[in-house]
Specification:
The chain is mainly α. Helices cover 84% and strands 0% of the residues. Helix 2 packs across helix 5 (64-81) and helix 5 (64-81) runs antiparallel to helix 6. The chain contains six helices and no strands. The chain has one domain. It comes from Amphibacillus marinus. The chain crosses the membrane at residues 6-24, 54-76, 83-112.
């Protein structure tokens, strides 16, 4: 049942993104930014963590979880370190994912030749 809910919730998030691009004729960059902001807003109101608990990877894999991670890290570190924690908390939580994307992108660029 966990896999089914992860599939459904992740699919709904992706459908929302696709509808934004198709119906409102927004660019992929706009849609990406909007979904990150929506994830941040949901975490700010304390609604994203229950979604993660319910849907698992269906809520942590889509781009909305990046916004969730930014706000979640900032709020946790702000409680510990004050205002400077707002900035350091965002970097602390998201740095491993961003670093992995850069490293794997570099490896891919070295191993494969682009077409075109």
């Amino acid at each position: 049942m966990v896999f089914l809910w992860a599939f459904i919730v992740g699919g709904i998030i992706c459908v929302i993104g696709q509808l934004i691009m198709d119906i409102f004729k927004k660019t992929p960059g706009f849609t990406l930014s909007l979904l990150v902001v929506l994830g941040a807003i949901l975490d700010g109101f304390g609604l994203y963590e229950p979604l993660v608990d319910f849907a698992g990877a269906g809520a942590t894999v889509p781009i909305t979880s990046f916004g969730n991670a930014l706000v979640h890290g900032a709020l946790l570190e702000a409680e510990k370190s004050g205002m400077i924690g707002v900035i350091t908390g965002m970097f602390e939580v998201t740095s491993s994912g961003i670093s992995a994307a850069i490293i794997f992108g570099m490896i891919g660029a070295l191993l494969f030749k682009p077409k075109g």
